[in-house]
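Fold sample X.
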Amino acid sequence: MSAKRYDALIAGAGPAGCAVALALQRLGVETLLADRPLAQPFRIGESATPDVAGLLQRLDMRIDFAGHSPYHGNLALWGSDQPQLDHFLFRGRGHGWHLDRSAFDRMLQQEAMARGVAFLGQSGVDGVAPDEGGWKVQVRGIGEVRARVLVDAGGRRSPLAARLGVARHRLDRLQALACHVETAGDLSGYSLVESSPHGWWYATALPDGRALLALMTDQDLAREQRLDHAGNFLAAWRATRLLAERLPPPLQASSLHAFAAHSGCVARAAGPNWICVGDALMGLDPLTSSGISGALSDALAAAPAIVGMLNGNLNAARHYAQRADDSFRRYLAERRQHYGLETRWTELPFWQRRCPPPLGGSRHAAPRAYQGRLA
């Protein structure tokens, strides 16, 4: 039997992968969406900024946000002894949403299937080899398929790009130590950020009445300070000001989960008959709160590049690579600026690694990650 043929195979069915599938479906591209099982069901990306609704509308999705709760802005204790409120209303943007993330992802997957996208859950890519006009792909659960274009939407590991020998730049060792808290405290409608000597804290209310709490710190610092131990984690939590007031620490912490949260990017955004989107393209510091909106934006930009590949025209892919390069360099400048606002712990390792270098320094120079071309 000959292998099933698709125009595009997308590895990863999170927001980036589903959005690419939906955008390609509108353009008449036959697509297979393959999703690998989650290593753990705990999810860290729980918020959608106000621009997400508009990006979904560009995919012809009319979203019912029932089961999710409004997200009005951010409350921060950063670089000052006084909390600062960034209300989305002040920007004329409306509100975003605190998500039931699993339900949100399922909604996108179901929408893709309803529109005729072939979806294979609990699967993954086990092997890739060049084929005339595309690729031979070993897909867990169905065997060999042929695809003309591969789309890596597999997250920070960039699994397809790695199989193709594409390097990934890693700028830091940031990780999230996260847990659920049974009460949301005084967080309703807002996300909270508070800087601390060894990193920064993030907390947000979830639609089910609980809260998500995460300490963002570097892996080596977490080991040295033993912050992944419940007692030390709770002690650091109690030492906060705004967080401890808005979300009082319990007597015992629930299980901690560690997640990669480092900044990084693939060495090339795309190549002959392959392309990266979402976190597989570039992983940004969670401080940006741009994970979902960035994934959807990447998908909308990637769709015409993929169609161009199918038609033998690489100009759109070159534009996509240049867009990625510009976005990552802009992100690095904004990251440097935001971390530089916090000057209370500049002698400590976490902040030394992120504070702007002296004038003329190059410690945070952008890697040559994207060249605006395919070769």
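Fold sample Y, listed below.
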Amino acid sequence: MNNQQLSAATFLLTDQDDYSADQERLNRAIMQFIKDHWHHDEHAVFVLTGDAGTGKSAAIARTFSHIQRLARQKSGFLAGSQNNLLVNHQEMLKIYQEVAGADTVLHKKDFAKPTPFINDHAKTGVRNDITFVDEAHLLLTQPDRFNRFDQHNQLTEIIRHSRVVVLVFDPHQVLKLKSYWDWPRLHAVIDHYPHQIFDLSHQFRIKGAQTVADWINAFTAGQILPIPATDHYDFHVYTDGTPLYQHVRMVNQRHGLARMLATADFPFTVFGNKTWYVHAGSLRLPWDKINMTSTPWAQLPKTINEVGSIYTIQGFDLNYAGIVLGPAIGYDPHTQKLQIHLDQYQDTEAFKNRSDIPDLAQAKTQIIRNSLNVLLKRGRLGVGIYATDPNLRQALIEAAQESGRP
């Protein structure tokens, strides 16, 4: 698979996509930040933030590649420097390593998950020079024996073992309590060090339709606005899951990378041989299985017959996303607001209790809203929605009719 195919299938920009002025400015800002702190003994942290789809991962991947090119030259201030890019997301790690295999500058060992990086550096005591962290909002904020992380905060440990840290942070993509982040929690870590925060705003993923991104932002906050009418984005509401799935299959045949996705409020287990299903009206499709291959889920042809989850698809681009909103996402016709039913959410791993979060119900509610944000912003060319809750389904249909959309 060449870089063009990889780009079309992932968070990376294709060759036809120009980098925004913000991204060019970001690259210069990161390089200047590194130079400013290169000869200091203290640690320093550069934070990149921005909405889903603004090209954060693509931008830091480009900058990291540039840094590694300089690190592997014989001269220059970065020559011989030891640098890594970390991501706590197995499917995204596959893409980074796949890109490295097709690149003469990057090596697969340049990319790793946070826990092995932390544990290795704790043993050797050797400090990394520059550590990039993609999807830093997935870093653990408590010990996790399953992941072999015994300390209390992965970001704190990464900073401890690095001269400069460059991280991507979006609190609206936090999906588990064990990696619960918000801006106050981030500042509690980075305010101990020199730091800079850079915001990206240009929307890359949702093609030509900022109004769609604005609608999704309002929806995840609880408000249903009229569905935007745009010729540049295929945005429809469905009264049943079967026609939605048929449309996904049609788009997949024409353009590729169209998949069904759902909120995590249909029963499932991660391990075991039992097949669990997502129900959407007359539609019944199996949940995605654990992907033991080196190919990301969305690139496997057979997954057109499955339903992906937030963990499968976070950070990736699809051409079209068919979204099933499960029973945890309801609607109150009297208040005209979304209702979040915590007791209907089936992702028990996401809701493992913590004693250090004052308002646990609010944190859990925000995690479900974040999952909506992640799912609804996957489609580059379009999104289709089916809601299992009758009140929500009717409200969405009326919102579509207001703009003349089916």
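Sample Y note: The chain has two domains: 3-200, 210-402.
Also: Residues 3-200 form a domain with the Rossmann fold fold (CATH 3.40.50.300).
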